[in-house]
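The aim of this short unit is practical: by the end, you should be able to scan a pair of folded records and say something sensible about each. We start with the first protein, listed as its amino acid sequence and then its structure tokens.
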Amino acid sequence: MNINSSIGIFDSGLGGLSVLKQFIRFLPNESYIYIGDTARVPYGNKSPETVAKYAAECTEFLLKRDVKLIVAACNTVSSVALDTVINVAGDVPVVGMIKPGANAALRATINNKIGIIGTRATIASKSYQNEIEKISNVKTVSSYPQACPLFVPFVEEGLQNSPAAKILAEDYLCKLRNEGIDTLILACTHYPLLSHLIQEIMPGINLIDSGEHASVSSLRLLAELKLLRDESEKFIDKPDIKFYVSDLPQNFYQQAQSFLGFDVGTPELIVL
């Protein structure tokens, strides 16, 4: 692996941009390759076998571009197919979302009541619940999972600020609010794009963005492997990112530009 190689990040669509934004924040000197599998979004309503197939194809694409780290930004992939990504990646290190997010939630909670919102596949896998139980030791923690399948299409269509999104969020979150949770894991990359709305409905709740904590974990990992770029190579004008999408590059371009706040260039259309 080359110290100057890129970090590869893949997601089912736009949601992984929330992870990419955190990586740019914590690792601004790195270059990135981002795959948005927009032709097959969402992954959260697919079978584990199908998700594993898609994840393997994204991983193979990144390996052909000599990346030094693969980030499975999609929580569904991290929940049901991370082993597939690791096996395909071989010697290239892989970072998922579950462990960093679960650790952060345990550090944040005071009353030991943690809510988890995610896709149907992520919630059904019990990946976050199992990880929280595994690492909580003697601490008694209660987890409250809630599938929010319609959040992803709302974000993909740019409707996260719409009145309909608020009605939907109220319906999804009212049960968790009634349980008295003090910490909520946003267990899908799309959900940080709804964080303002979620915080409005649940004021005072600790929101855990798994992408933020995955980026910090990646910083430590690359430092241990001596694969961090030198600070003198920091990109001045904007981050060095190559975007690839499997469908609708223009729609992706418009939303990515708005969310990231800089010219992302024209994403390249690919077949996975």
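Turning to the second protein, read its sequence before its tokens, just as you did above.
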Amino acid sequence: MTLRSLQQEKPDRLRRRVVKSLLTGVALIFTGLWQRVRAADAALWPRDAFAQKTDSEAIRLLFGKQAEVSDQIKLDAPEIAENGAVVPVSVATTLPDVTAITFVVAQNPFPLAASYKIPAGTLAMVSNRLKMAKTGNVIALVESGGKLYSASKEVKVTIGGCGG
């Protein structure tokens, strides 16, 4: 396209072409950046821990240490979950220097349900909806100051959420 043909084009049509070109360029740049971010996140994802069939092995692979029970962790979960496909849980703690919060459901086919890295200076509180195959304990793990702490609560499931 030449300069003369652009000058002869109607202003509205020219404006649309310019805006469309700019938006296409921005979309291409954003897509490239997003793919880089996703690739970096995937490299950090603890695939082996999430694939384990036992809670103790998943915890060992994720943290490499045993957890001790703490009364400074507040785990909110329902006593009875009418639908195991959607069990609301939340964790909050007053422990200092929290670096990770993890949910484990021992009775699930894959016990490690969710794991979050907590950035420094962030409020140590996480909410999620978990799937539970059947009645069992929901365990909240909190990594704080290089140590691992836990709290648990039994949730009775009336309809299974993991294919049951």
